Amino acid sequence: MTILKDTRFVPLHILVVDNNDIERKASVEIIRDNQHIATEASTGEAALVAAYDIPFDLILLELHLPNMNGFEVAKLIRTLPATRGWVPIIALTQTDNHEDVRKCFQVGMSNFILKPLTTSSLLAATCTYSARKNVPAIQFSYFDGSNQ
Fold first, then answer.
1. Which among 8, 17, 35, 62 would be 20 to 30 A from 99, CA to CA?
2. Could you state, in order of their start, the residue ranges of all structural domains in the chain?
3. CB distance 54 to 143 below 8 Å
4. What is the tens place of the pLDDT at every residue in 56-96?
5. How far is CA 29 from CA 25, 33, 35, in A?
Protein backbone atom coordinates (compact mmCIF):
# COMPACT_ATOMS: atom_id res chain seq x y z
CA MET A 1 0.00 0.00 0.00
CA THR A 2 1.34 3.46 -0.89
CA ILE A 3 0.80 6.39 1.45
CA LEU A 4 1.16 9.99 0.26
CA LYS A 5 2.52 12.58 2.65
CA ASP A 6 2.86 16.30 1.92
CA THR A 7 6.22 17.80 2.76
CA ARG A 8 6.38 21.02 4.69
CA PHE A 9 6.90 24.36 2.97
CA VAL A 10 10.56 25.34 2.92
CA PRO A 11 11.20 29.02 2.24
CA LEU A 12 13.74 29.96 -0.39
CA HIS A 13 16.56 32.40 0.25
CA ILE A 14 16.51 34.64 -2.82
CA LEU A 15 19.04 37.26 -3.90
CA VAL A 16 17.39 40.14 -5.79
CA VAL A 17 19.85 42.14 -7.89
CA ASP A 18 18.48 45.30 -9.50
CA ASN A 19 19.87 48.82 -9.65
CA ASN A 20 16.34 50.25 -9.85
CA ASP A 21 15.45 50.80 -6.18
CA ILE A 22 11.69 50.86 -6.76
CA GLU A 23 11.60 47.62 -8.76
CA ARG A 24 14.02 45.87 -6.37
CA LYS A 25 11.98 46.87 -3.30
CA ALA A 26 8.74 45.75 -5.00
CA SER A 27 10.27 42.34 -5.80
CA VAL A 28 11.57 41.95 -2.26
CA GLU A 29 8.15 42.81 -0.85
CA ILE A 30 6.43 40.15 -2.97
CA ILE A 31 9.07 37.58 -1.96
CA ARG A 32 8.76 38.36 1.75
CA ASP A 33 4.95 38.50 1.61
CA ASN A 34 5.08 34.92 0.35
CA GLN A 35 7.20 33.68 3.26
CA HIS A 36 10.54 33.56 1.44
CA ILE A 37 13.75 35.26 2.56
CA ALA A 38 15.12 38.08 0.39
CA THR A 39 18.53 39.69 0.25
CA GLU A 40 19.07 42.78 -1.89
CA ALA A 41 21.95 43.95 -4.05
CA SER A 42 21.99 46.98 -6.33
CA THR A 43 25.24 46.29 -8.21
CA GLY A 44 26.91 43.33 -9.86
CA GLU A 45 29.84 43.62 -7.49
CA ALA A 46 27.55 43.46 -4.43
CA ALA A 47 25.77 40.45 -5.97
CA LEU A 48 29.06 38.58 -6.35
CA VAL A 49 30.06 39.24 -2.74
CA ALA A 50 26.64 38.07 -1.51
CA ALA A 51 26.67 34.96 -3.75
CA TYR A 52 30.11 34.04 -2.43
CA ASP A 53 29.13 34.53 1.23
CA ILE A 54 25.58 33.11 1.28
CA PRO A 55 24.20 29.86 -0.17
CA PHE A 56 21.16 31.24 -2.01
CA ASP A 57 18.42 29.02 -3.41
CA LEU A 58 17.65 31.42 -6.27
CA ILE A 59 19.06 34.62 -7.78
CA LEU A 60 16.94 37.17 -9.66
CA LEU A 61 19.41 39.19 -11.73
CA GLU A 62 18.80 42.36 -13.75
CA LEU A 63 20.69 42.14 -17.04
CA HIS A 64 21.41 45.83 -17.50
CA LEU A 65 23.39 46.83 -14.43
CA PRO A 66 25.97 49.63 -14.48
CA ASN A 67 29.69 48.75 -14.46
CA MET A 68 29.16 44.98 -14.58
CA ASN A 69 26.14 43.68 -16.50
CA GLY A 70 24.06 40.66 -15.53
CA PHE A 71 25.74 38.43 -18.11
CA GLU A 72 29.14 39.09 -16.54
CA VAL A 73 27.76 38.55 -13.04
CA ALA A 74 26.13 35.23 -13.98
CA LYS A 75 29.31 34.03 -15.68
CA LEU A 76 31.35 34.82 -12.55
CA ILE A 77 28.78 33.22 -10.22
CA ARG A 78 29.11 30.01 -12.26
CA THR A 79 32.82 29.92 -11.30
CA LEU A 80 32.09 29.94 -7.54
CA PRO A 81 32.87 26.76 -5.60
CA ALA A 82 30.40 23.95 -4.92
CA THR A 83 26.68 24.66 -4.77
CA ARG A 84 27.14 28.44 -4.68
CA GLY A 85 28.14 28.30 -8.32
CA TRP A 86 25.13 26.25 -9.38
CA VAL A 87 22.33 28.29 -7.85
CA PRO A 88 19.48 28.88 -10.35
CA ILE A 89 19.75 32.37 -11.87
CA ILE A 90 16.75 34.06 -13.45
CA ALA A 91 17.44 37.07 -15.65
CA LEU A 92 15.27 40.15 -15.23
CA THR A 93 14.93 42.14 -18.44
CA GLN A 94 12.64 44.62 -20.14
CA THR A 95 13.04 43.04 -23.55
CA ASP A 96 12.80 39.53 -24.93
CA ASN A 97 15.45 40.29 -27.54
CA HIS A 98 16.52 36.93 -29.00
CA GLU A 99 20.21 37.76 -28.65
CA ASP A 100 19.82 38.59 -24.93
CA VAL A 101 17.82 35.41 -24.33
CA ARG A 102 20.47 33.33 -26.13
CA LYS A 103 23.22 34.99 -24.07
CA CYS A 104 21.31 34.27 -20.83
CA PHE A 105 21.42 30.56 -21.47
CA GLN A 106 24.95 30.70 -22.88
CA VAL A 107 26.33 32.11 -19.60
CA GLY A 108 24.41 29.58 -17.53
CA MET A 109 21.23 31.35 -16.50
CA SER A 110 18.22 29.13 -15.84
CA ASN A 111 15.42 31.32 -17.19
CA PHE A 112 14.31 34.91 -17.67
CA ILE A 113 11.35 37.06 -16.59
CA LEU A 114 10.18 40.13 -18.45
CA LYS A 115 9.92 43.39 -16.51
CA PRO A 116 7.97 44.98 -15.08
CA LEU A 117 7.66 42.03 -12.74
CA THR A 118 4.23 40.91 -11.70
CA THR A 119 3.30 39.01 -8.59
CA SER A 120 2.29 36.02 -10.70
CA SER A 121 5.56 35.92 -12.70
CA LEU A 122 7.62 36.16 -9.54
CA LEU A 123 5.56 33.53 -7.72
CA ALA A 124 5.73 31.17 -10.70
CA ALA A 125 9.52 31.38 -10.56
CA THR A 126 9.69 30.86 -6.80
CA CYS A 127 7.24 27.93 -6.99
CA THR A 128 9.35 26.23 -9.65
CA TYR A 129 12.51 26.43 -7.58
CA SER A 130 10.74 25.84 -4.27
CA ALA A 131 9.45 22.56 -5.67
CA ARG A 132 12.98 21.62 -6.71
CA LYS A 133 14.32 22.42 -3.24
CA ASN A 134 11.63 20.25 -1.67
CA VAL A 135 12.08 17.27 -4.00
CA PRO A 136 10.44 14.91 -3.54
CA ALA A 137 7.37 17.08 -3.18
CA ILE A 138 5.40 13.95 -2.34
CA GLN A 139 7.05 11.20 -0.37
CA PHE A 140 6.02 7.61 -0.96
CA SER A 141 6.18 5.03 1.78
CA TYR A 142 5.53 1.35 1.54
CA PHE A 143 3.24 -0.14 4.13
CA ASP A 144 2.91 -3.91 4.12
CA GLY A 145 0.73 -4.28 7.19
CA SER A 146 3.41 -5.91 9.31
CA ASN A 147 3.71 -2.86 11.56
CA GLN A 148 0.16 -3.15 12.93
1. 17
2. 2-142
3. no
4. 999 999 999 999 999 999 999 999 988 888 999 999 998 88
5. 6, 6, 10
